[in-house]
Design goal:
This protein is 2% helix and 42% strand. The chain is an all-beta fold.
Length: 539
Amino acid sequence: MISHWSGSAVLFGILVAVFCGEVDAVSYRTVAIEGGAAPGTMPGVVFADIGTTPEGDFTFRPPLLNNTGQVAFIATLGGPGTNRGTRGAWIERNGTLELVTKTGTAAPGLTTTFTSIDRLAINDGGQIALTTRLLNGREAIWSKGDDGLELVAQSGSPAPGTEPGVNFGPFVTNPILNERGELAFYTLLAGDRGQGVWAERGGSLELIASSGQPAPGTPEGVTFSKQGFSQPAFNDNGSVAFRAGIVGSGVRYENDRGIWTNANGALTLVVRSGSQAPGGNAEERFSLLGDPRINSTGHVVFNGYLEGSGITDGNDVGLWKQVGSDLQLVVREGPVVPGIPAPGAGPDVNFSSISSFSMNDAGHLLIKATTTGPGVDAPHNEGFWVDRGDGYRLLCHEGMQAPGLNPGVRIEFSPLLALTMMNESGRFAMRAQLSGDEIDGTNDLGIWAIGEHGLELVVRTGQLLEVAPGDQRTVASFASIFQFNDRGQTAFLADFTDGTSGVFVAELGAVPEPAGWCIMLAAIFSVTTLDRRPRIARI
């Protein structure tokens, strides 16, 4: 990232303190393999990619992994009684795969059948939420626990909490399932009636907010607009945070967005565009707001753009956190980069952009940022930092030696390929691209996770992976989305050079209690989507 940090002494110190050590053996468990029998279906039906469908060409979608080690996934089927659109959803229970449902099956409680299974969620109790399309042309959200599949909401049906005649429209995002088995979702309303956010608690749907309703914390007559609602954040206590647009008297382009939460009971305004930004001068105001995150203590974090006197492209983005009713600046472009002291870093190396963030239940924050200043190498100017309440420290950076690989092979953060995940046990895994000698398009991608001896290689393109006894296949690629749980297990979807694919769980050797700041992290990294408008080209 910073050229002075790549010197041998500094690099050796960083690697010894954080990443060095022996390499643990990695064990792999095959969850499902293309061509393998699909449990719960007719004899001869297998997991198979049988051609392009309206939903795309795939055998498996990236798997989900909960903290008990259960895997859930959506897959395409081939064989007797199937067609090119036959899909199903599976979950592991007691070490075996169980069919949740598949297309062509009767939808419980409805006089129609499933035609597509689109989205899936799982919690640690093994409960599932999924979004489906139906033969009657509607969409539906379902939950599945011990009592089977139950309907939560259906497009075209009345939207609870709204005026008579207002119905649900298409369900455009994933349902969110918390550890209490409660659901939250954002959806469009039929007939161009706008949008809204709902939560399902105790078997009944509760309206959180919808277009046309008064927007709390704003002047009388100001309501939620027909556009601008974000995917809600939903915590394990059933609290919601979301971004939305507003309309009404006094609302202009500069102040027509806000973030709301019900973490303290009633729905309250966290922040509104056009308001003064804490941590700056009196003339610095929010211009754009990003999607919020909320943890189980009710803390809300969001990122945003600033405008006003003294604001430039180098200091106009930051993160803010609400604790109770207090809104605080967390970090902002422009301050000196914190991290491991290193020769040549200097006092003039600054954050030039903050592109994503995550927060855990302890309030620890992880950010991805780029830097600028003396000694910064432009191709290697990106890294991840963590704040555990004692200031930001560097986690990893572009250009560092790739753990588990030959000297000179380095980590690269391609915008489309880099991903870091943190679990609630204080360990992390990352997916990154590689560069260096003997690196090409067949072996330039890997996933790393914390093992007994530090950050260790889990899987890499070009390696052989045993999918069954005596059956080894070469990894050609793996899906951009992977999962990392509190047990230190990694679930991923791999494609092989022979054209097949499969779902796998990898596990390193025994993992000790975290010992250093670098592995005392606890968060799930998620790319944060900023409220983009035509004038915005960054983040």
